[in-house]
Specification:
alpha+beta; transmembrane; three-stranded antiparallel sheet; membrane; transmembrane helix; single chain; Immunoglobulin-like; four-stranded antiparallel sheet; 37% strand; 2 domains
Length: 172
């Protein structure tokens, strides 16, 4: 009688092990397929940065890693130049531990409110320059650039008032 109990117990345990193992294998295959369908990166945000204290305008994007990236890749961000001409190009190597990459242009001029500016993010191989994937987004400024002062309001690390902007007080 005890042999019967042991035999059924072993059969039940074996069945549970097979079911749990099959579930884990199925989940691993499903996860692998889901990861393969994703791109390496996606642009998660971006916009114009108006710094009235320094009297300049920048724009930038942020990209998030969606799946592990192989070594030997780089990111190239191309921002449409508001004054025309060649796009502003920034590049960065992809590192194994990074989960997010940010790109910010140097100060730009000629930004127009409501105009869409094209930003392209390209993943390339370092050695061959082969394009792996490309993402595109258009950024629109909703602030009139006329609000940015002609010269900085503050100077120095203490944000001291810019003496060039001081208005003389009138004495009566």
């Amino acid at each position: 009688m005890e042999f019967e109990k042991t035999r059924y117990f072993r059969l039940a345990v074996s069945l549970v092990v097979v079911l749990v193992g099959g579930t884990f294998i199925g989940l691993a295959v499903y996860n692998h397929q889901m990861q393969a369908d994703k791109t390496y990166l996606t642009i998660t945000g971006g916009g114009f940065i108006y710094n009235y204290r320094h009297a300049d305008i920048h724009y930038g994007i942020t990209a998030a890693v969606q799946r592990p990236t192989p070594t030997g890749l780089r990111l190239i961000a191309r921002f449409e130049n508001p004054t025309g001409g060649q796009p502003i190009t920034l590049q960065r190597a992809i590192t194994a531990r990074a989960t997010r990459y940010s790109f910010e242009t140097p100060p730009v001029h000629g930004v127009k409110e409501g105009h869409p500016y094209r930003v392209t993010l390209t993943v390339e191989e370092n050695a061959s320059g082969k394009v792996i994937e490309t993402h595109e987004r258009h950024l629109v400024s909703d602030v009139d650039p006329g609000l940015v002062p002609d010269s900085p309001l503050t100077i120095g690390p203490g944000y001291h008032r810019n003496p060039e902007r001081e208005r003389p007080t009138s004495v009566n």
